[in-house]
Design a protein that fits this description.
The protein has about 240 residues and is mainly α. It is about 70% helix and about 5% strand.
């Protein structure tokens, strides 16, 4: 490990701690409900993957922050230490979140070549970060038309938000990340290819979110989304 690696790890843990402090501060000082503070932490954690790409040149080191939070998030969930993130009726979704990021980055991120597929990983993570988060927020606030698949109850409003948000974020990731300074070894996509891949992937990600039992969408959505992106991109 280099000095830059140690600095990157330190910055990552400081950022993660700051997210928890901010979320808990919003809950205690301003009375923000845990449903919202949890999503603030959720989105903030997901967006950190771009900083990981900037801070680290070695994928084995770069996945350490998220991998260590698999265990840490379990302890936080098990003992309900952070009220802004885990309430009595919450699921171990934060644990699944860390597992998904670690797994996708471990499998697909290769900054030292020969081919870097991290854009696929990031696309899956963004589907979870923004699509899943907005589906929950919009669904709770505006979800008047409910439907049920197995034990999962969702709203059409939330599912539409999931599809739209996921399409937008995956399109932006696939259009802008490959070939950029964050992923110079990845093959860039044309605008049409990126849009088609985003729409197809968002469709499957929305279906995965709809049928996933409580909390498991943090596992199913990113893995399904990344898998679909991978498959569709093979046609280009």
């Amino acid at each position: 490990m280099t000095n830059n690696d140690f600095i990157g790890l330190a910055i990552s843990y400081i950022y993660a701690t700051s997210l928890l402090v901010i979320g808990e501060g919003l809950r205690r000082l301003f009375g923000v409900k845990p449903d919202l503070t949890r999503k603030v932490i959720h989105i903030g954690a997901g967006m950190w993957v771009f900083a990981i790409l900037r801070l680290f040149n070695n994928w084995q080191i770069g996945i350490i922050p998220f991998s260590t939070f698999i265990g840490l998030n379990y302890l936080l969930y098990r003992y309900r230490i952070i009220g802004a993130m885990d309430t009595q009726d919450s699921s171990p979704g934060t644990v699944y979140f860390a597992i998904s990021v670690t797994l996708l980055f471990g499998l697909l991120w290769r900054p030292d070549g020969p081919i870097d597929n991290v854009a696929i990983a990031v696309a899956g993570i963004m589907a979870m970060t923004w699509g899943d988060a907005l589906a929950a927020l919009i669904g709770r606030r505006f979800g008047q038309h409910k439907y049920q698949v197995g034990n999962s109850v969702r709203s059409w409003e939330g599912s539409v938000a999931m599809f739209v948000a996921t399409t937008v974020v995956i399109f932006l990731v696939l259009l802008l990340l490959p070939g950029s300074s964050l992923s110079p070894l990845a093959k860039p996509l044309s605008l049409g290819s990126a849009l088609l891949t985003a729409v197809v992937t968002a469709t499957f990600a929305t279906l995965a979110e709809a049928v996933s039992p409580h909390g498991t969408d943090n596992l199913s959505v990113p893995l399904v989304a990344a898998g679909v992106v991978w498959i569709v991109m093979q046609a280009f």
